[in-house]
Amino acid sequence: MTETVGSPAGASGEPEAGVRPAGIRVQRVYTTEGVHPYDEVKWERRDVVMTNWRDGSVNFEQRGVEFPDFWSLNAVNIVTSKYFRGAVGTEEREHSLRQLIDRVVKTYVAAGVEHGYFATEKDAEIFEHELIWMLLHQVFSFNSPVWFNVGTSSRQQVSACFILSVDDTMESILDWYKEEGLIFKGGSGAGLNLSRIRSSRELLSSGGTASGPVSFMRGADASAGTIKSGGATRRAAKMVVLDVDHPDIEEFIETKAREEHKIRALRDAGFDMDLGGADASSVQYQNANNSVRVSDEFMRAVENDGQFGLRARTTGEVLETVKARDLFRKMAQAAWECADPGIQYDDTINDWHTSPESGRITASNPCSEYMHLDNSSCNLASLNLLKFLREDLTFDAELFEKTVEFVITAMDISICFADFPTEAIGDTTRKFRQLGIGYANLGALLMATGHAYDSDGGRALAAAITSLMTGTAYKRSAELAGVVGPYEGYARNAEAHQRVMRKHAAANDLVRTYHHNDAAVHKLATKVWQECLEIGARNGWRNAQASVLAPTGTIGLMMDCDTTGIEPDLALVKFKKLVGGGSMQIVNQTVPRALQALGYQEEQIEAIVEYIAEHGHVVDAPGLRPEHYEVFDCAMGERSIAPMGHVRMMAAVQPFLSGAISKTVNMPESATVEDVEQLYFEGWKMGLKALAIYRDNCKVGQPLSAGKGDKGQKQQVEKQIEYRPVRKRLPKKRPSQTVSFTVGGAEGYLHAGSYPDDGLGEIFVKLGKQGSTLAGVMDAFSMSISVGLQYGIPLEFYVSKFQNLRFEPAGMTDDPDIRMASSVLDYLFRRLALDYLPYEKRAQLGIFTAEEREAQVNGTDSAPPQDSDVDLDTLRSTVDYPKSDPREEERRVGSSTELLELRLGKAADAPLCMTCGTKMRPSGSCYVCEGCGSTSGCS
């Protein structure tokens, strides 16, 4: 928490007129006086060894890195491989999270002191400790370029998003190529509008015909395809925009769709056209997202079935008049075929522009969330919303407000020392100081509080939180303006900036609340906006832009977020890597919290979670009321959110963002071109700034496609290897044990024989009278299981299949470790797991002794899995299959997306990671790799 102070001050405590405060005073929120944040956590050493999922090769290794014990394996791997600086194996290499956080935070604080942000040295120290605490505890994260560059010998590039400009000259076009390359090299992405370039239907001064913007896109695309961002951390990300009235708009619209046709033809001819395939580089225009910038005039012409003029770039005259609906249909048709182009609503964007006197907003960054002046940049940071959810499932709005104040202050300080790839970008950014605070984990927060993503209550909570975030950010910006001055371009744009602030506040007044959570947040947001307007009218604002909703790909994984940006959960069951190797699938941790919020009892929650673990969805889950199904709807799976549900969520939060939203609206394969048209049209009506869609399986250049000439398949056909298991018989004399049991009143005996070197080798079950049908069936079943064990089928495989089977007899048992059983087989195999499987295996299966469960409740568990963020009660069967059968080996998965593919029985439309080979997952309008943190975007 911070406040501005000055000297001298009047009796009210406010600075006297004309006197600028001497700096901000900082109060502790998270930290304790006299205790350093690093001393409040338990540190441990980890070994980071990252392999390529496809071939097993090691692509990164660093041992003995130091992290807090509550950081997950995935977060540790990603931070170590992506953000630690220095050559691996040298003394200069960072090896502790402390070093990384200190490198960044101390640079920020030193710049704040130098530029007069803090009232005293003590305030600077408290600010430093608060930032360290929040980063250490994954409350928020700066965007990736900050971690790449700040505090190193490299240029201090802190911005992830850039907007360039290009004019109708060859010199400007060549500068565009160069500037994009420099931005990609620094780990960021760029976008620009090509509409100033004259069309292919206009003449050059020399008398020849111009090439047109699409031809120049070809060279820029090839350049982007050869550059990896931030030192081989990810592919280059870029956005290309063209105005709807450009004479070459039809060629632009159809560019990527035509390339998709080429991919199909080449694939069918036997070429390797998978992403990253040997022949895929022959396809053009694949390194950029394309968007058409439409005007209200055009959209009204579409609505009224009117005509629309395409205008020359040099003279402004109408070269051709087209039917608006036909052009709109071509946009939808191309997007239906290959997901491009997206759409950007020009007049809506510029109606919310705080600095129109300095130029129009013509383009966006690659992921469409940053929109401001040409030749500018945006520094991003995102907050982890689940960190503000109290144990009673209420959202801590006051803590959220204080956190936003800290983060936005740090973000503004970074502009004081930041370097930029071009002088033009640096000049614009320093004059307008554009920031982009945002959040992640909205989908998880809504589910945890019992809200359906596509519901009025869910949208109200999202809108209230977003309004509070932006209102607080601008309020702090106004306070900073009173300390270190407003942004340089403010004086010229003061009236427009104040108008946009009033628009935000008016939109906040229109939010309808449904629940005590969103009502409390909205009440505070209303108060904050009033204060923002009052302070801003007095001081102006420090920043022309304050908030966006970015994809939060890599940093979302760094914060151990379940969902990225504004996205809902991908699926209810996800993939989890384990320390020491291996993997498992787990039910998302937000599911039990959601069931608790909906009023279910502990026994009901356990049964529902078990059902989800087995089926991957909630339909017909025992005890779950059908009216609650919608709370667990996800982006993919049995019950997926309708495309319009995504659009409605975007529309709910858009009025409370300075910029826009990085999000792709997923559509089923069965969706029609008319459905795409409706989404694009409704997006305009609802006040969105941009919209992109993706129809399942619309791209054929995807992993798992099997072309006719697949070389790998041919090699497998030529050389077939037959695998046969070998039976390992038990010796004549072997250790054994017998357990008597009672399940639902039925009595029986379990005899288990082991190999001398440990490991179960046979079972015999006596149940029912000798000679009865039940006894005979159990004898046959026992022999079948025993032979399977001796042929090498792991016991945990049997346990995963037979636990939770439901049939009579069922009910209470006389076993203190297993009080309830849903069937005799459920009891038998859980008992065998307790007797013969190690703790780690049982933890994956969710099977514990009474003593272990008590220890977990009391927080004294002496042997939990090393991934302490995993809810042990929700862990289920392993994803690794027995390696004796090559057909099963092919079914192994390496990411949540691949796990979802396995459950749905079809390939997901996501690329393979260029670094580690796992299938990426959607993150906003981009993709992120869960294995190594690489992204296809710019966050």
Automatic annotation (TrEMBL):
Keyword Nucleotide-binding: yes
Assigned keywords, A-Z: Cobalamin, Cobalt, Disulfide bond, DNA synthesis, Nucleotide-binding, Oxidoreductase
Residue span(s) of domain Ribonucleotide reductase class II vitamin B12-dependent N-terminal: 48-138
The TSCPD domain, residue ranges: 731-835
Domain Ribonucleotide reductase large subunit C-terminal: 159-694
Keyword rRNA-binding carried by entry: no
Cofactor: adenosylcob(III)alamin
Chain positions covered by the region annotation Disordered: 855-897
Protein name (record): Vitamin B12-dependent ribonucleotide reductase
Source organism of the structure: Saccharopolyspora thermophila
